[in-house]
Amino acid sequence: MNIQTSSTDAQSTMRLNGRFDFNAHKVFRETYQQLLDDKAKAIVLDLSQVDYLDSSALGMLLQFKEKADMQGTKISLHNCSQLAKDVLAIANFDKLFEIS
Amino acid sequence: MRILAVDDTRANLVLLQAMLKRSGHEVVTAENGEDALQVFEEQQPDLVLMDVMMPGMDGFEAAQKLQEMSAPRWVPIIFISAAATEEYYIKGHQSGGADYLFKPINQVILNTKIESIKRIVDMQNTLHSQNTALQEYVEKDEAERRISRHIMEHMAESKGLEDPLISSMITPAEQFSGDVLCAARSPSNRLYLLIGDAVGHGLAAAINTLPISGTFYSMVYKGFELQTIAKELNRRIKEAMPTGCFVACGIVMIDPGESYAEVWNAGLPTFYCVDSHGHVSDTFESTQLPLGVLTADQYEVKSEIIPYRPGHQIILFSDGLIEAENSDGEFFGIERLLGCLHNPENRLDDIRFALEEFMGEENPHDDVTLALVDMPAQDSSGMEIFSDHQQTEILTSVAEADGLDWRVNFHLGVSEVKALDLTPMILGALGQFKGVEQHNQKLFLIMAELLNNALDHGLLKLDSSLKSGPDAFEKYLSERQDRLETLESGFIEITASKLRLHDESFLRITIEDTGEGFNYETINQGDAGQSAMHGRGIKLVKQLCRAVVYENRGNKVTVDYDLNTVNKS
């Protein structure tokens, strides 16, 4: 997986591309950590280019959320593919994240 | 470096020794081949300078022996010879020599060669220590894995899965499974089956599942309700595991006696209930977050209840099954799974075969777990545990006792009644007294029946007739839920004491509620006709106790349970 980031004053966007699974652990964590260190007010995860997402990805999302909550950064998941939506729905993650 | 110099001519040896010392090396010497082997053994030098022409064992032979002695470690040897012939040069290298020096020895060349050998020796030493460390690591890792696997296998006791109502498979993607499957019967013979899928796979995921099986078994054995078990599982995982580690989990409970099934799904793919033709009658979607995401006070457990459907089967599985991916990048998928259910006798094998055929040479990348739970047409396992029970005459009055060993009293108000899983809690307390725990199973049934009567028909004023008719049990339970939530007053009082009469000891339990009671005269007279109204429950209690007596307006019941007979079941 690779991740492109872009930032405006209001928010930062992480555009994820490829398989979102355990192998993406390092790049995902480093990317969001950088944005959090830069004091991003809100972070949008663009999942439109994610063709696979498994339970370790959900675990990484939880870790990300915990870190973001601590410094008051808002997270939302945008452009979820049908597959991503299904996986998130099964785990009922819509109760934790803003998903669109 | 420590250097062994070997030469049969003492003058040469002295010269060599002087040159080496000048360059800062430590020198040990030997004057012939045999000597060299012995000194080498004693002094363990880093490098050997070996004269070729010696009486007895010559340099080449000594070099070969040294290499053999030190194998697998390689000893750097530099040959020294006056004869600068091609043949000697080749033979030197063939005998395991690292280099060749020709007499007369030039100090600068000697130093250069030793330096270059030193680099090789250093490299060899580094490699050797790294290799040793790696080897130790591998051995330690293997030992730890062996221990871990042993612990996992023993904690995940699989005896419960041999239940005749269950068929299952669990196929780890790695040595360890991140999926967990356990089953057990409660004291009232309800069947509980749990399936869990921890984030990821391998050892880390397997560790995540550890708190589950222990908690599950101990709570089922104590007779806790599904919702209480699920809530406790969430608390344990949340407390024990770091953020990001969670466990998708589901539990199915089959109660053949009460004729219903309860299903709870938190984060697993939809479970199905299918009839004998494989047609889906009920679906149980994931309605909740997996275990370990929310804290205990945020986590509410919502389960679904369906009537007991004779001949149907509930199918539960982890996502590793439907997401098994073949070499074309296709998923096994839910359609294929539901297509394997035509033959109710053979479903597990049919699914296994279909999966193997679908995957071909590929292996699933995640743990694959599947369980099928039967609701048999004939309630074969419902109450058979009491078939060995001796039918004794039921006393309808309680005897005065000679002696009292202990007595406990519980007064449970509205909020306790609403919040607690009463039967296991009280039985847990009674079980602390010596000699009570071995009667746990029967006492559980007695206590559960009496407490349910006190709560349902006493405090909540539910009529037993609500239980008859199609889908009655669902309606009954939902009515019960509503009334419990709005209950404002009343209490249940429980007294238990261990009494002695002559040489016998027995447990006397009295339960009184603030409800309206019922006409118990007919029950006290042992009228069988009443059994229809008061259900199997009271009949069972009477079978298990030596006396059952109703008092007041029917809101107080006292039973005597014999503690002398050893529990055979």
Description:
The complex is a heterodimer of chains A (100) and B (569). Chain A has a single domain, classed as Transcription Regulator spoIIAA, CATH 3.30.750. Helix content of chain A is 38%, strand content 34%. Chain A has helices at 25-37, 55-70, 82-90, and strands spanning 2-7, 12-20, 42-53, 74-78, 98-99. In chain A, strands 1-2-3-4-5 form a five-stranded mixed beta sheet. In chain A, strand 1 (2-7) and strand 2 (12-20) form a beta hairpin. In chain A, helix 1 (25-37) runs parallel beside helix 2 (55-70). Chain A is globular. The two termini of chain A are 21 Å apart. The mean pLDDT of chain A is 89. By secondary structure, chain B is an alpha+beta fold. Chain B folds into three domains: 2-126, Rossmann fold (3-Layer(aba) Sandwich), CATH 3.40.50.2300; 156-375, PPM-type phosphatase domain (Phosphatase 2c, domain 1); 386-562, Histidine kinase-like ATPase, C-terminal domain (Heat Shock Protein 90), CATH 3.30.565.10. Chain B has 16 helices and 20 strands. Chain B has helices spanning 10-22, 33-43, 59-70, 86-94, 107-155, 203-221, 226-240, 319-322, 333-338, 347-359, 414-419, 422-430, 440-459, 472-486, 521-524, 531-544; strands spanning 2-6, 26-30, 47-51, 77-81, 99-102, 166-171, 179-185, 191-198, 247-255, 260-266, 271-274, 280-284, 304-307, 312-317, 368-375, 403-412, 492-501, 504-513, 547-551, 556-562. In chain B, the strands form four sheets. In chain B, strands 2-1-3-4-5 form a five-stranded parallel beta sheet, with helices on both faces. A five-stranded antiparallel beta sheet of chain B has the order 6-15-14-11-12. The longest helix of chain B has 49 residues, at 107-155. The radius of gyration of chain B is 40 Å and the shape is elongated. The two termini of chain B are 78 Å apart.
